Amino acid sequence: MSKDEVILLDFWVSPFALRAKIALAEKGVEFEARQEDLLGEKSELLLKSNPIYKKVPVLVHNGKAVNESTIIVSYIDDTWPTPSLLPPCAYGRATARFWADYVDKKLFDGGSKIWRSKGEEVEVAKKEFIEILKVLEGALGEKEYFGGDSFGFVDILAIPITAWFYAYEQYGNFKVEDECPKISAWIKKCLERESVASGYPEPTKVYEFVGLLRKMHGLEHSPELPAFSLFIPRKTGDQQLRMPCPLSSVFGYGRIPVRLYIRSIEEDVDDLEDVPHIDSWDRISYLNRPVEMHKDEGKIFTLSDAIKTLLPEFFEDEPSIDEEMSRIELEDGAKSPESTLSSKDPENLGSARGREPSEIKLIRIQGIEPKWDIPFSWVVSNLMNPEYYLHICVCIRVAQDPDKIW
Ligand SMILES: N[C@@H](CCC(=O)N[C@@H](CS)C(=O)NCC(=O)O)C(=O)O
């Protein structure tokens, strides 16, 4: 029989992916863990293998995809039966499945409520989480593992979430060890196992990651950004409404997944109403590419800066190797290969390598036409599509290339 091909679509901090890694390691199954870029662009394989949720983990076993971590752990147990992760008797298995279900429904979401909360809500979330932990501590009782003497199904589902406990403790200002010493001892016991320790992320790194998530959720703002009030124009007919920006939602840095839709036109127009209408989405190009926002920018990184980094080939005279690479990616990623992409920012940036400069005519996000010099962080905090990407539509008058003869 030929060797099994086992691929796990993974993300280093995902407790759900860690469940699958531990189960495979316990069974001694060799596998390839492929890191997904969940804050950037998801792989084709992920989108194809988990089209419903588009989440990790996905176990691809000899080309067949299995989704949802608890189902994956069961599948691993069924496929490679030794050593069994569930007790031999039906009642033992039912009990394990009951606690597995409790962990699934309560533990991660209960902890997440702590870091997602602000002010008085934090105390409420912390109290709820400690109650959940105490229930689990009751189920553990005096046993070493949830399964008794042997590490099993419930342990595999619960232990990965404990890598996030340090972050919960920091944001909730409590110590799991003080509240639930038996749970704390169980964590230490599980961490003695190679299968757990090898994939368990550093809790301080998880805490840093949670800090990033808090910024993405607008729960923290970056002190490095200057405190001034921002206004964003919103067009309603001829009226320009001015909306104040809540400073609390300013985002500092990170990798922002952007989907940029590009409508290119060749003739200049004074009024965008004169742009010919198009009847099919197939004729709109788009690219998916992350924008890197760095912590130590020293100056405000604006919306137009972000557009520049998304279309670098049109803002500098000589292409760097990186730019050449991204141009190739752009051409691969663009939906309509025949369309030419080109732009400059409102202050006339760059000459697009000897061509007459192109020009951005419009930037629209969530139906709003923000000023191009507003901090990109504000755009991310306030106009990010909750589903995933920051969707930005641009209309660009394309530079005529003098070298192009037809
Ligand atoms: N119920 C799922 C949860 C999986 C999940 O939430 N995965 C996260 C990473 S921890 C993910 O892929 N998120 C990407 C997204 O939501 O787009 C499971 O148990 O597998």
From TrEMBL:
Matches recorded under InterPro entries: ATG5_UblB (IPR048318), Glutathione-S-Trfase_C-like (IPR010987), Glutathione-S-Trfase_C_sf (IPR036282), Glutathione_S-Trfase (IPR040079), Glutathione_S-Trfase_N (IPR004045), GST_C (IPR004046), GST_C_Tau (IPR045074), Omega/Tau-like (IPR045073)
Catalysed reaction, written as an equation: RX + glutathione = an S-substituted glutathione + a halide anion + H(+)
Entry's Gene Ontology molecular function annotations: glutathione transferase activity
An example Gene Ontology biological process: glutathione metabolic process
Domain annotation GST N-terminal: ranges: 4-84
Listed EC numbers: 2.5.1.18
Region Disordered, residue ranges: 331-354
EC class name: transferase
GO cellular component: cytoplasm
Domain GST C-terminal per the UniProt entry, residue ranges: 89-209
Keyword Transferase: yes
Keywords assigned by UniProt, alphabetized: Transferase
Name listed for the protein in its UniProt record: glutathione transferase
